[in-house]
Amino acid sequence: MFRKILILLSIISVWLVCSGWFSTDLDFKIRFAQINGLKSEERILFEENTIGKVTDIFYEKDGTYLVEVEIDSDFKNAVTGNSQFFIVKDPSDPGKKAIEMITVKGEGEPLEDGAVVEGSTRLSALLDKMGNDLEKSMADLKKRFKGFSEGAKEIPENQNIKRLQKDLDQLLEEMKQSGAAFRDKVQKDLVPRLQEEIDKLNERLRELGREKEAEPLQTKMDEIRKI
Asked: Sheet of 49-59: strands edge to edge?
């Protein structure tokens, strides 16, 4: 009789595990103003790792979207109250979307099952990561520009300039998806300073006979001004 009870308990335990009752994964919800084509089963990324997936998406009465996600148990300790989430193109499949997570403001309390957090956009999340301080953001950009221009002779593949162009592409995409207030702030506070640094970079490249390498950056800046 005792043996039968043990067998029954084992069967019940296996069933509960398979049913998710004993799951150690982290389940919570992210609220987004727009989901940009995000679908169930698409990935959640953190530092180039797949850490989970979208399990369901609900449209709310106020016009927002509530996205249910599941984080693998191996990564759930990385998800805290200081984590921010934004929707991006899946780098492994441009035809799909993904949710990317970054951590801002250092360590935080681990997120609990069932929590609801507010989603972000990539640019606003990155600004938050830099202390949500535009001056600090510009100081960082200036430092990068300075490094690009001063090291231009040692960059035959122009990888740093290409990386900067990618950053401008992302800024353009974020502006297209954001409201008028955000676009106005970028145009007023960020664009003039970016242009100043691009001009300096262009001057340095001209001295090296490589001015054409800065043309894609200027083209992108022209596009940003038209948003």
From this structure: 83-89, 97-103, 43-46, 49-59, 65-71, 26-32, 116-118
CB half-sphere exposure, 136, CA atoms < 13 A: 8
Mean pLDDT, rounded, for 186-192? 82
Query: CB–CB of 84/92 below 8 Å?
Result: no
Distance of alpha carbon 199 from alpha carbon 14, whole angstroms? 65
The full set of domain ranges for the chain reads 12-126, 133-225
CA distance to 32, 33, 114, 116, 183, per residue, from 63 (Å): 10, 7, 21, 16, 21
Cα end-to-end span (Å), the chain = 76
Q: Is the distance from CB of 65 to CB of 40 less than 8 angstroms?
A: no
pTM above 0.90, yes or no: no
pLDDT band at 65 (very low <50, low <70, confident <90, very high): very high
Find out whether 227 and 190 touch, Cβ atoms under 8 Å: no
Give backbone dihedrals phi and psi of 202, rounded to 5 degrees, phi first: -60, -40
Paired tokens of 91: 């780098």
Task: Identify the H or E element spanning 139.
Answer: helix 134-150
